[in-house]
Every structure is written in structure tokens, then in C-alpha cells.
Amino acid sequence: MQSLHSQSAGWGNFLEKVNLILLRRMIADLEFAPSNRQLVDYWLSLCQDDKLPDRSAFRPADVRPLLANLVIYDVVPGKSVTVRLAGTTFNIALGLELKGRDWVKLAPENHRPQRLRGFTDIAMGAIGRGLRRVEMLPTGYYTFEGIMLPCHADRNSDVHPVVGHIDWNPGREFVKIKSPEQALGAPLVSFEVIPLPALRVG
Questions:
Q1: Where do the domains of the chain lie?
Q2: pLDDT > 80? residue 10
């Protein structure tokens, strides 16, 4: 896993201004699963005035085909990750409601610090991308890509919103996830944190 592994949480390392020219080039060079590419391109289109998009700028009508696989996290860097909203795919496949759940505590205890570090780095100014492999019923395994994109954070709040999405299309041969606990808690097959290019002023 590539990670910024910020030594200090809060606002000290927060990306105030993003270099949109370099960001567009970086995004163009990255490969994403098809539906994740749709969300990344939409997120990029909302970046204005050298800053990340506000979460409120996301219009459901603009990304309607993606809503079922969309998840929004409230990240307090270095402290917590809470699921603010989760699409219907998560409820159906996992058989539980994620809204309001502590995403860090859903991981095995020995993996929690790593999960919190990853989300802290993303919230402070990076794209997260990973592959997860889950066992499905009646039989077989399914591997899918998930992405996480940071939003602009209000300085009057400790919360840094992060928008996530999974490219979930397992096909009819799979009915449901065999073990929701394994799917929620297991470390990703691969995971990288890609720092966003900062705009240098002066």
C-alpha cells in the first residue's frame, strides 16, 4: 500500500489548493473500472477555483446510475470514519444498514490503525483506490474495485467528507456475500493512496 501516512491529523497537512492542470493530467493517466471512471470524471468536473468540490455540489440526478454503489464517509482525521450514507447495494449484499456505523470498528482490531491512516490521508488530499475479494454464494469469489475521493472541508468543522464508490456487477451466478463480516473487515487485496498535486503559491 502506498500511503502518505500523515504524522499529524487535523488541518496541518490539509490540501487547501489543488493544481487542477496537473490533477487533470494525473486523472487521465490513471486506469479505473468503468463506473468508477464515471464518478472520478464527474468529481473532477466539480473542482473549481483550485479547490476540491463541496459534498453539496454532488447532484444525485447527475450520477443516478451510480447511486446504488455510492457511499459517503464523514472522516475526522486521525480519529474516526463514520458512514454518512450508503447505497442500496451495500444493504442488499451485506444484509445490514451501514448508515451511522463506525467504519474503522468494522475492521478486525489489528487492521483498524491502517484503515484509519488510509482514510485520514485521503481526507487530507488524496485519491484512494483498492481491490477487494469476497466469497459469494452459492459458490465462488468476486473481485471488485473501490475508490474514495476527498471533498472540500469546512474549516468550522472537524469533518472531512469522502465520497466512495464500488464497481459492483457480480452477475446472476452470485446471489449474495457469504460472510458480511469478512467482506467488511478483511484487508483489501491491494490498496493505494494517490496524493493530489498541490497548487504552490508564490
A1: 20-195
A2: no
pTM to 2 decimals?
A: 0.90
Burial 62-72 (b: 16+ CB within 10 A, else e): ebeebebbbbb
Question: CATH classification of 20-195, choosing from 3.10.290.10, 2.60.40.3710, 3.40.1550.10, 3.30.450.20?
Answer: 3.30.450.20
Torsion sign over Cα 108, 110, 111, 116: positive
Rounded to whole angstroms, how far apart are CA atoms 101 and 140?
28
| Burial state string for 4-35 with b = 16 or more CB within 10 A and e = fewer than 16 | bebeebeeeebbeebbbeebeebbeeeebbeb
**Which phi-psi region, left, alpha or beta, contains residue 60 (left: φ > 0; alpha: ψ -120 to 50)?**
alpha
What span, in angstroms and rounded, lies between the C-alpha atoms of 47 and 70?
19
Residue type, 58: F
Which residues, in sequence order, are bridge partners of residue 143?
Answer: 133
Cα gap 147→165, rounded to integer Å = 6
User: What percent of the chain stands above pLDDT 90?
Assistant: 64
